[in-house]
Specification:
This protein is mainly alpha-helical. Helices cover 40% and strands 0% of the residues. Helix 2 packs antiparallel against helix 3. It is globular.
């Protein structure tokens, strides 16, 4: 499920940034979405860095779901963001993917 939902978020265009789902009962949530706004972006990286430095925990920031927020989570989220940027404008057959 996490892999499929990550693909959905990674393939979304930034044109719909105004969208935010307030219905958390049926919202697809991806671990790593630390600011909980339904998008993986630089704001999540900033939030994870803040949590690492303050030694705080939130499951949504725990991208690898190992019970702690650390550099591994930061690296994973950054890789997903970089992949999204790298795939922008490419045909589906040319897009790279990653396993989450």
């Amino acid at each position: 499920m996490a892999g499929a939902s990550a693909v959905v978020l990674l393939n979304n265009d930034d044109d719909d940034k105004g969208y935010y789902s307030s219905n958390s009962d049926c919202r697809l949530q991806v671990l790593g979405n630390a600011d909980k706004n339904d998008y993986l972006d630089d704001n999540d990286v900033t939030k994870i860095k803040e949590m690492i430095s303050s030694n705080t925990y939130d499951q949504m920031a725990d991208a690898n779901n190992n019970g702690k927020v650390d550099e591994t989570d930061l690296d994973l989220v950054q890789k997903m963001i970089n992949l999204k940027k790298s795939n922008s404008g490419k045909a589906d057959s040319e897009k790279e993917s990653m396993t989450v």
